[in-house]
Amino acid sequence: MSVVEKIKTAKSTAFSFELLPPLKGNGIETVCRTIDTLREFDPKYINITTHRSELVFKQKTDGLFEQVAERHRPGTVAIAAAIQNKYKIAVVPHVICSGFTREETEYALIDLQFLGITDLLLLRGDKAKHERDFSPTGHKHATELQIQVNNFNEGLFLDGSKMKSPVKPFSYGMACYPEKHEEAPNLESDLIYAKQKVDAGAEYLVTQMFFDNQKYYDFVDKCRVNGINVPIIPGIKPITLMNQLTVLPKIFHTDIPEEFAAALRACKTDSDAVEVGVEWCIKQAKDLNAHGVPSIHFYSMMATQSVKRIAEAVF
């Protein structure tokens, strides 16, 4: 059963969360601890992020510097397979444009097919840290990546040749932005892009994190008016650090309501911020649950214990 089928057939609001692969050189233990902490809430799926390589300067033995590509969090496909094998929970690896060639994406799709992993989240991904604007290595837009996956589902490789054996088609979701993507000129044009994704085969949409539920509800209403009728999964995150009051809006271009911002400004320590973040996220999740959303997806980086407390209060 695909992730979208699990969401649609759930008797109540479904629970899911996101994991990062461990930093290069570390083991899978931290990943397992997060899953062990949250598995009691019956996650319908677990998302596994993918990270691009970054260009860094390294000093050579002759004292000169050379620019090399370095990837700090490899292993998305392997982590996804390990989770599915150990926990029997559906996994959704991210497949991104940023930092990956079309050929590398094709090899990843082949590997995922061999492993029996056929749920994906297709994303453009972030620009490299050294870039002012997004510069594609392969696809420029998530919709181009979507075309490659659709062709793969039809049994076609990049070079146009046909696969000798049939494949189980990938089922996939894509991203959407209740407060619009940072590069979109306005929300209306962002809705056009969201509809293009759905019309081309996206079976559900997952939002960027938000802290004001009304913006999510307004966005969903606009989507429905524009003929976007797939499940729209709200993604939320409990704040755990005082500096996230300014860091998250800068990175993710999301507003923090003044009531929440004032409570965070009053915090004296990060421990205070954890409590404020949990309280706000519980209020968000309860309200979303009361509105009958199909699922709530938690961005759990550095927030596993907070997510557990929220889930205990809501699910």
Sum up the overall morphology in one term: globular
* Rg, alpha carbons: 20 Å
In the CATH hierarchy, the third-tier topology of the largest domain is known as TIM Barrel
Number of strands: 11
**Count of helix runs:** 11
Helix-strand topology string? HEHEEEHEHEHEHEHEEHHHEH
**Overall number of structural domains:** 2
Q: Flag low-confidence runs.
A: none
Question: What's the CATH class label of the largest domain?
Answer: Alpha Beta
Overall average residue pLDDT: 90
Helix content: 40-55%
Q: Strand content of the residues, in percent? A: 15-25%
Strand order of the largest sheet: 9-8-7-6-5-2-1-11-10
Span from first to last CA?
Answer: 22 Å
Secondary structural class: alpha/beta
CATH architecture of the largest domain: Alpha-Beta Barrel
Sheet bearing the most strands, described?
A: 9 strands, parallel
Please give a handful of descriptors for the protein shown:
single chain, 315 residues, alpha/beta, TIM Barrel, two-stranded antiparallel ribbon, 11 strands, globular
Brief characterization of the structure:
With 315 residues, the protein is α/β, with parallel strands linked by helices.
Written overview of the protein:
This protein has eleven helices and eleven strands. The protein is an alpha/beta fold. It folds into two domains: 148 residues, Alpha-Beta Barrel (TIM Barrel); 114 residues, TIM Barrel (Alpha-Beta Barrel). The strands form two sheets. It has a nine-stranded parallel sheet with strand order 9-8-7-6-5-2-1-11-10. The radius of gyration is 20 Å and the shape is globular. The mean pLDDT is 90.
